[in-house]
Design goal:
alpha+beta, eight-stranded antiparallel β-sheet, 10 helices, globular, binds zinc ion
């Protein structure tokens, strides 16, 4: 188990984080079980779709051990077919074969534009989970001071990457996850063409949390939630389970209605609001994961 003294000593060695970022070039946001799990914090937006909050990303939790990163990456699929919705974690997260990705790759490699569009719709989305301290949450002040989990997508992860690898020589590289020399993150959400947009979000100047009081910081660190559980095998359906769900959703098992229009109607009437909000979240960030399909095509 990692010690607090170790954490403090090694805090400027963020080459490990930079490396992990380099390994991750494609990303987007997705929803999964965030809404039911009260450990997760989510920013609230007003009727116009705008919102803001100040959070602080925290270092890797003690419970995850020495080699842990401050975040975990989870791929997921979320789409609708004639036989219903498929909202599941993608097995590529744990480096296993995923039947949905395989099907997408077949569609993509067919070279038919309509198939490519379907593959785009069904593609895996990458999201990140990290511990945060809620600094300011104007619509839910009761959250302030709490250590929570935060699930986010590519746009926010890009901001973290930029902070660690500044573009210009006069900018100092900052590890946003550092308790002493990190920086608060000003989350600014706007509604752009119906989707949540995080472009205006930014890091504040470097500052120590808890005025740099080690006793308080250690308690804060020890109260972080474990992240490894989100990438444990039990979070994932087996290949066979996922394949049979995919067949049902795509109507390949013969149970889905034949007429596509009718199927769509019945699908919508049977979808729970919760599912729709999940899908909204899945679709809320634009991304370009096409390189992924291209890489699959190359493997064949
Ligand atoms: Zn997949």
């Amino acid at each position: 188990m990692n010690s607090f003294a170790n954490l403090k000593r090694s805090r400027n060695d963020f080459a490990k984080l930079t490396k992990a970022i380099e390994a991750t070039t494609q990303a987007t946001e997705s929803g999964s079980k965030v809404r039911e799990d009260t450990r997760f914090w989510q920013p609230e937006v007003d009727k116009a779709g705008n919102g803001m909050a100040v959070i602080r990303f925290l270092p890797a939790p003690q419970v995850d051990g020495d080699d842990a990163l401050p975040w975990v990456r989870v791929f997921s699929h979320g789409f609708q077919g004639p036989g219903g919705w498929l909202i599941d974690n993608c097995l590529t997260t744990i480096n296993e074969k995923c039947p949905v990705c395989e099907h997408n790759s077949t569609l993509w490699n067919s070279g038919i534009e309509a198939n490519k569009d379907i593959a785009r719709k069904q593609k895996r989305k990458l999201s990140y989970i990290a511990n945060i301290l809620v600094i300011s949450d104007p619509t839910h002040t009761e959250n302030e001071g709490q250590v929570r989990l935060f699930k986010f997508g590519k746009k926010i992860f890009d901001k973290i990457t930029e902070a660690m690898n500044p573009e210009f020589a006069d900018e100092k590289a900052v590890n946003p996850f550092d308790l002493w020399e990190g920086a608060n993150f000003k989350l600014k959400i706007r509604n752009v063409e119906g989707y949540r947009n995080y472009d205006k979000s930014e890091f504040a100047n470097q500052s120590a949390l808890c005025d740099g009081n080690d006793e308080k910081l250690e308690a804060l660190w020890k109260s972080e939630h474990g992240l490894k559980e989100f990438v444990e095998k039990k979070q994932f359906k087996s290949y066979e389970q996922l394949k049979s769900r995919l067949d049902k959703v795509l109507g390949f098992d013969g149970t889905a209605p034949v007429s596509r229009t009718k199927a769509t109607d019945s699908v919508f009437s049977s979808v729970k609001d919760e599912d729709v909000s999940k899908i909204d979240k899945v679709m809320s960030e634009d991304d370009a994961d096409l390189d992924y399909f291209k890489s699959l095509a190359k493997q064949d």
